[in-house]
Known about the structure:
The protein is an alpha/beta fold. It contains nine helices and 22 strands. It is about 25% helix and about 30% strand.
Amino acid sequence: MARLDRTPFQTRILDLSHDGRGVARREDGKAVFVSGALPGETVLAEPTARSRRFDEARTVQVLEASPDRVQPRCPHFGTCGGCVLQHLAEDKQIVAKQRVLLENLERIGKVAPGAVLPPLTAGSWGYRRKGRFSVRRVNKKDKTLVGFREQDPRFVADLRQCHTVIPQIGMKIEALAALVDSLQARESIPQIEFIAGDDAIALTVRHLEPLAEADRAALAAFGREHGFAIFLQPKGPDSVHPLEGKAPALSFRLPQWDVELAFEPLDFIQVNARLNDRMIALALEMLDAQPGERVLDLFCGLGNFTLPLARGAAEVVGVEGDAGLVARARANAQRNGLANAQFFAADLTQDQRGTPWMRQGFDKLLLDPPRSGADEVLRQLPLKGIDRIVYVSCHPGSLARDAGFLVHERGYRLVSAGVMDMFPHTAHVESIALFER
């Protein structure tokens, strides 16, 4: 294959792609995705990759700027892959995400919502309470890097701070990198996961070799100095254990429903605490479960929606594929005195038609599936008695596909849909939709 010609070229940006890059066209009509460019801009772009269907490039110079362009807050923006939209005004980021949702619904699902909901937002900095830093010792630089992957995912970004991560962690990345660099095991630590409850923050250190006593002591001292609970992960997720003694309990409260959810260091929780509170309130308002009704909550996790729902409905059944999360959801129901919430472990991508919970009959359905959506389970569910469905989605493409199925094959109408800014400054689109018979 011929070597890539990296000569910069001038181009006009026509659109924004779903992953936050500018879209331009070559003279022959071929699409070029340009990182760091915004619609309406004229930029000088350097080619970075070429394929049969499209080319890729990065912005070298903005010749004519969009009025929506802002100065990125973070000095690492453009290199670190954690954010792709910091150069776009915050109020315009959510508009771009709304367009992605509506285009997906129309193009993939062949549906349009009766109403577009106002975007749900909740502050755009210092929100990320869960995440994973990659760790890499770079001998050429004589330092250990701790951070998110670069836009070229082969590399770890050399971060000093992160403005989207909660400040207790985001402002201590440099100290964390220095700590890891001081360890004998620095070559055999590939990642550090962080997760924050209301009263405690946990760091889980993945290590491929046993840790020396000196390393354990250094990690413990760092935890005490910065107020982190340190966990170690020598093997798979089940091997996670506290470095010292009994770890503090991790939990977050949902005051509006008088619910507290306990979790473990590697559990899935919604990344943005403030947005999560607003999202639950909106989902429950849209579902409008009445005191006499039974509600099914699919992909329920720890009970993030299930337990608030149980405060108002007659009975709620939560179903989730991860058995550990189900065990903790049951414990959370008990701890919160909610005897009307039941939980079942089931792989919702497989045939569940023989399971007791599937045949129980429900009035309302709430679901919050992974990126792959809920295609398999929706095709199996006896939907006859369910007059209202609230679908929370982290991927507009799979929501659009499932919306098409519910509308065109199951007789529902898409009453409303809207976006929620769970991940400001990233191209990630979180959305919510209401279906009624």
